[in-house]
Amino acid sequence: NGKKTLGWIKNTFDSRTHSYSLTSSEGHDVFLKRRVKNNYMCLKERVLDSVSNNFGVHVSYKYKKSKARFQDSFHRLTSIEKPEARLQLISYYDDRPQSYNFGRVRSLSSRFENNQKPQLTHRFEYKFKYGDGSYFKNEVKEGTTIVYDAYDNKTTYQFDTCHRLDKVEKYLDNSLYTTEKMKWSNSKSIQSGRLLSKTLSDSNNKVLK
Fold first, then answer.
1. The pTM is what?
2. Of 142, 208, 145, 144, which Cα lies nearest the Cα of 177?
3. CA–CA separation, 90 vs 83, rounded Å?
């Protein structure tokens, strides 16, 4: 019939340890270990604990639980420990429980070699527009995520009322460098959510691609 198997992956789940083992036809083995933790509502929550392979690579994950409000009662990833003493730390907006920034990522820090203090690599800010309906008047309708890198260069990610990314603006030395725009299908159509086109333009609005 002309069909030929080029490769395969075997997936094995161990219910006692809540872990997965993946083995490929090329001899690669990956082991995913999970932990079961109780969240604020005493519900069972399974989180990824570590990922390792048969080449000696091991990555582990740590989490933090907040009890400030129900919406934020689940565990949030706070650190990723990588080979060769590399580390990534994730901090969140925790100081104002009533703010819509609460529970969102505040910053990322990384350590690139042993005995090095983690360095701040990214900062995050958020601007939202809210709905005006009687029930969903405080629901986030659209807005912008602002990201600053280690050199304080800014990138803005703008999303529409359907929470779809529709514009990305990159800045260099506080000046607009490029703008990428996305066009989506009508939210009421049968093809809702489909990306129709993307355009990239420079600071002079000249289309690059």
1. 0.78
2. 208
3. 18
Structure tokens at 125: 């800010």
**Would you say residue 44 has pLDDT above 50?**
yes
Residue from 136, 66, 140 nearest 103 by CA: 66
CA distance 49 to 19: 9
Backbone angles phi, psi at 165, to 5 degrees: -65, 120
- At 115, the amino acid letter reads N
- Residues whose CB is less than 8 angstroms from the CB of residue 158 and which lie 6 or more positions away in sequence, other chains included: 142, 143, 144, 165, 166, 167, 168, 169
Residues 134-149: pLDDT tens digits? Answer: 444 556 678 999 999 9
| Distance (Å, whole) CA 66 – CA 102 | 11
